[in-house]
Amino acid sequence: MNDIKKHDDARFVSRLTRQTLALILAGGRGSRLHELTGWRAKPGLHFGGKFRIIDFPLSNCINSGIRRIGVLTQYKAHSLIRHLLNGWSWFQSGAGDREFVDILPASQRVGGEWYRGTADAIYQNLDIIRTHQPEFVLILAGDHVYKMDYGPFLAFHDAQQADISICCLEVPVEEAAGDLGVMTVDETGRIIAFDEKPEKPNSVPGKPGICLASMGNYLFNTEFLYEQVIRDADTVDTQHDFGKNVIPGLIHQYRAYAYPFRDQETGDQAYWRDVGTLDAFWEANMELISVSPQLNLYDKIWPIWTHQVQSPPAKFVFDLDDRRGSAIQSMVAGGCVISGSIVRGSLVFSDCYVHSYSEVTDSVILPDVDIGEHCRINRAIIDRGCKIPEGTTIGIDRDEDRERGFRVTRKGVTLVTPDMLGQQLHFTR
After folding, report:
1. What pLDDT, on the 0 to 100 scale, is given for residue 93?
2. Residues 404 and 424 sit within 8 Å (Cβ to Cβ)
3. Domain stops at, among 243, 271, 287
4. Which of 17, 170, 329, 345 could bridge 65 with an S-S bond, Cβ 3.0-4.6 Å?
């Protein structure tokens, strides 16, 4: 069998996935999401009507055949951990070391410190990684929305005899400038430079105006990973970060390759979203209600798994000229009641109630929200548990929204949380 056939062979890829341990970095706060992540880690944030962001890399692992997974948590992880326990323990019963989702919280295992960076998070769990004896370690960002088969990535890594391979996106130079980590590669795809947020990114050979931006997904040969994170741990004046410290320091000595993330059927740039700002979060959710969204949540071949409370079907009640429960160009989750109101161009998550004579337009309504009668909500994100009083308008007058303590984004999306409404859901004393 020649090398090309070898690395396309399903059995060969299956062997690679069985020899891989996936570690999902899920400890980030997501500070650019402001109050939306005030009580939850970014990977635990609700997305797409019924999911959490963490469900996407987890589902990618399961669908790819990688069934040994660790999730590293730190910042306000209670909601995230509860979701993992409720939704991601179903496949591990009796499987022992063959398949599992382990939760690896920051626990000062080494040196008495919390996780000080992405590389340090791995370093502090080396003892656990060693017990599983993987041949490869796949390190994934836990806060991005995308669907990806990691099997071809593993096959590429093996074919290149790489020490480390990095998933990347092809993006316009002006989009990456000053904002993204960018790789410079030669004609073979080998990385020759890694720059964190450069003002003038280098273009891909043969593709002027296009550069390679890191997705934050790294594939290491296991022994090589041990060497690099230990070296980083012993280094002074480091932020213990893969993108800022570890990777730039190794590319000139070792075999580091870039793996462009493309749609396997079309070869075009694949769907990937960093929902790290309120505007990006709102936009990514709004994309899903289009007729043919790029992210297909109805794909039975590549399902996104999650945990959801067993709720009754969504219900739409009243059918009068001035009081008709309806949802147009929208997604409405189970347990919702749209009572004599109109939902248009919006996502309504589970167990929400929209009372009569109200109108919700171009908005993201997170779970357990109650919207009173005669309300008008437009271009808004309503956080979980909000009780919107009767007659409230949100997103109609931006200046008024700001005066009431709501957060209005640069693109005119209004965020409302229970605290902003004087409704305290979280008590510390």
Report:
1. 55
2. no
3. 287
4. 17
- Residue 249 is classified by DSSP as T
Bridge partner list, 326:
342
Tell me how far apart the alpha carbons of residues 121 and 28 are, in angstroms, rounded to a whole number.
11
Backbone angles phi, psi at 264, to 5 degrees: -70, -25
pTM, rounded to two decimals: 0.94
Query: How confident is the model at residue 265, as a pLDDT?
Result: 82
| Whether residue 271 is found in the same domain as residue 347 | no
Residues of the chain with pLDDT under 70: 1-8, 91-96, 112
Answer for the pair 213, 100: CB distance below 8 angstroms, yes or no.
no
User: Which of 83, 14, 88 has the alpha carbon at shortest distance from 58?
Assistant: 88
Q: How large is the greatest C-alpha to C-alpha distance in the chain, in angstroms? A: 72
Q: Which amino acid makes up residue 428? A: T
Q: Which of 7, 40, 3, 51 is nearest to 284 (CA)?
A: 51
Q: Which structure tokens are listed for 16?
A: 């690679």
Residue ranges making up the domain that contains 78: 3-287
Looking at residue 1, its pLDDT comes to 36
Look at residue 356 and give its three-state secondary structure.
Answer: coil
Name residues whose C-beta falls within 8 Å of residue 147's C-beta, 6 or more positions apart in sequence: 56, 59, 60, 270, 271, 295, 299, 302, 304
Helices in 196-336 by DSSP H: which ranges?
222-233, 278-287
Q: Check residue 308 and give its pLDDT.
A: 84
CB neighbourhood size of 392 (10 A): 19
* CA–CA gap between residue 325 and residue 330 (Å, rounded): 13
358 in the same domain as 279: no
Query: β-pairing, 359-361 with 272-274?
Result: unpaired
HSE at residue 76, side-chain half, CA atoms within 13 A, is: 15
Residue from 371, 356, 292 nearest 326 by CA: 356
Q: Which residue carries 């041949």 as its tokens?
A: 135
Kindly state whether residues 205 and 89 are assigned to the same domain: yes
pLDDT of residue 4: 46
Contact indicator for 429, 413 with CB cutoff of 8 Å: no
Identify whether 94 is part of a domain: yes
Q: Are strands 380-382 and 364-365 parallel, antiparallel or unpaired?
A: parallel
Identify the CATH number of the domain in which residue 94 sits.
3.90.550.10
Query: Which single residue is written with the structure tokens 């979980």?
Result: 384
The CA-CA-CA angle for residues 158, 160, 165, to 5°, reads 75
Q: Provide the 3-class DSSP secondary structure of residue 325.
A: coil
Tell me, what's the pLDDT at 271?
95
Sign, CA dihedral 377-382-385-387, equals negative
Q: Which residue has the tokens 């919700």?
A: 360
